[in-house]
């Protein structure tokens, strides 16, 4: 007699149905992965080894599918098996509803803060008990690795930072950051392509009029108002926020830009201009890595070895 008992899905089937099933969902757009204790070299948030980030923060491009995001999360698990990972997804609806986006993405803040509790007051030690090199290295050691993709990821990171700093007692940790295909400035065609990238079939055609209207409004904000002396447009403000020296120069250890001339959504000259602006504002360790012939947020697919070597070197530094 056949049994009517439900059959549990295999891990492979679960992964196929939801490629991010190994992560815990904290909100519609925020996830966390916590390593198994057996694979973790740092069982608590306060005992991470210098070789591994205490936390990895990923901010994906707008409309990125779970399958594509997982292709970046998995290599991070391999590179830093002891490090927890927080993922913030950028969704098309965030651009139409910024207030709800703030609430959605702010769900990441309490979890991130939990990995970086306030440090207890340090006892004064005589100079003879400390080496100058040792103190310098400790002060400059990052604890947080940030990786963002495209303008969607840049905007998501801005929202995360805003939520974190809403607590005046929170000190943003020392960090390194990878900019993949970001940040870019406004172009009508590039913006339309970006916000419609995840739409296919009839849904795309039904949404196109609204998307064109949205891009036209962005054109007014960036071109008519932004370029003629009024308030800068949203993308310009997001790019400027990443180079806010007053907030981040003392916290950022190093950054790397990964980009390509073949990217039709984000102009390579915008990326290099942003890197140049960062240097002018005092960010000391700024690295630019131009890939050849790779499309928007597809540089890892073009040269995996180089891409993940850059990620590792952004974290560890290059002598």
Tell me what the structure shows.
Pfam families: DUF829. This is Transmembrane protein 53. It comes from Podospora didyma. Residues 116-137 are annotated as: Disordered. This protein has 319 residues and is α/β, with parallel strands linked by helices. The chain is globular, with a radius of gyration of 21 Å. The chain has helices at residues 11-17, 66-79, 92-96, 98-105, 108-114, 132-139, 150-165, 188-195, 201-225, 234-242, 245-248, 268-280, 299-302, 304-316; strands at residues 24-27, 30-33, 55-59, 85-88, 144-149, 175-180, 252-260, 286-291. The chain starts with 10 loop residues before the first helix and ends with a helix. It has 14 helices and eight strands. Residues 41-49 have low confidence and may be disordered. Strands 1-2-4-3-5-6-7-8 form an eight-stranded mixed β-sheet, sandwiched between helices. 44% of the residues lie in helices and 14% in strands. It has a domain at 19-40 and 49-115 and 142-186 and 239-316: Alpha/Beta hydrolase fold, catalytic domain (Rossmann fold, 3-Layer(aba) Sandwich). α5 (108-114) crosses α7 (150-165) and α8 (188-195) runs antiparallel to α9.
């Amino acid at each position: 007699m056949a049994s009517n008992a439900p059959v549990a899905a295999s891990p492979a089937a679960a992964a196929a149905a939801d490629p991010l099933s190994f992560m815990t969902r904290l909100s519609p757009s925020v996830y966390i992965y916590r390593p198994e204790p057996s694979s973790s070299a740092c069982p608590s948030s306060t005992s991470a080894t210098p070789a591994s980030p205490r936390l990895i923060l990923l901010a994906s491009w707008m409309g990125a599918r779970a399958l594509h995001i997982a292709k970046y999360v998995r290599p991070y698990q391999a590179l830093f098996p002891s490090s927890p990972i927080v993922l913030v997804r950028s969704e098309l609806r965030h651009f139409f509803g910024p207030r709800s986006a703030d609430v959605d993405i702010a769900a990441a803040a309490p979890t991130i803060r939990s990995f970086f509790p306030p440090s207890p007051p340090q006892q004064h030690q005589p100079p003879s008990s400390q080496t100058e090199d040792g103190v310098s290295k400790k002060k400059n050691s990052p604890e947080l690795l940030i990786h963002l993709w495209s303008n969607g990821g840049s905007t998501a990171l801005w929202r995360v930072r805003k939520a974190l700093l809403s607590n005046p007692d929170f000190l943003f940790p020392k960090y390194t950051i990878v900019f993949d295909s970001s940040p870019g400035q406004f172009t009508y065609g590039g913006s339309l392509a970006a916000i419609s990238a995840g739409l296919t079939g009839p849904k795309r055609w039904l949404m196109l009029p609204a998307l064109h209207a949205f891009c036209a409004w962005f054109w007014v904000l960036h071109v008519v108002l932004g370029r003629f002396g009024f308030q800068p447009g949203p993308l310009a403000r997001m790019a400027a926020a990443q180079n806010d020296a007053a907030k981040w120069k003392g916290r950022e250890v190093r950054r790397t830009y990964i980009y390509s001339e073949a990217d039709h959504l984000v102009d390579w000259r915008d990326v290099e201009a942003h890197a140049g602006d960062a240097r002018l504002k005092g960010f000391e360790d700024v690295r630019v890595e131009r890939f050849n012939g790779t499309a928007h947020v597809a540089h890892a697919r073009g040269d995996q070895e180089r891409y993940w070597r850059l990620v590792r070197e952004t974290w560890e530094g290059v002598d």
